[in-house]
Amino acid sequence: TRVLVLNGPNLGRLGRRQPEIYGTTTHDELADLCVAWGAERGLEVEVRQTNHEGELLDWLNAAADERTPVVLNAAAWTHYSYALFDACGQLEAPLVEVHISEPKQRPEEFRHYSVVTPFAVEVVAGHGIEGYRMALDVLVSALGQ
Ligand code: DQA
Asked: Which Pfam families does the protein's record reference (predicted)?
């Protein structure tokens, strides 16, 4: 099964961005880990990152058309993008929401709401990079494999 792992804005700087919050693993390393974790589970994982909201919307629209399961860390867009809400609402295959940190435990009030959660089979947050492995496990069960 083909699976998309989609990462939103500022996640391209993983490893350098606020390592005290997001850790020291780079996005390239995360991508390699996700591909390996997927392979162990019989999933063909493709990892993408963008700082451009429209690009993420295009990927989600294609995932809707192709019924592709998605692991999504929409980063800051999670908290306010109604276009993202609408795009997630069109997905047909399971969607798992992932965050490296636990946004609900962070001091900024704006992080406490997610437009993705209503459409996610599960939210995995606060487990660092391992959260992506957990999200793939959730997808495996959701797909009934
Ligand atoms: C994040 C949490 C968001 O609040 C933040 O805007 C991010 C990353 C996380 O993975 O912990 O960019 O989604």
From this structure: DHquinase_II
- Return the DSSP state at 11: G
| Cα-based distances in Å from 111 to 76, 81, 88, 125 | 8, 12, 18, 12
Whether pTM > 0.95 for this model: the answer is: yes
Question: Is 52 annotated as catalytic?
Answer: no
Class of domain 2-143: alpha beta
* Dihedrals phi, psi of 72, to nearest 5 degrees: -125, 120
Residue 79 annotated as binding site: yes
Sheet containing strand 122-125, strands side by side: 44-49, 2-7, 70-73, 95-99, 122-125
Give 145's pLDDT tier (boundaries 50, 70, 90). low
For residue 22, indicate whether it is catalytic.
yes
| Residue 58 pLDDT class (50, 70, 90 cuts) | very high
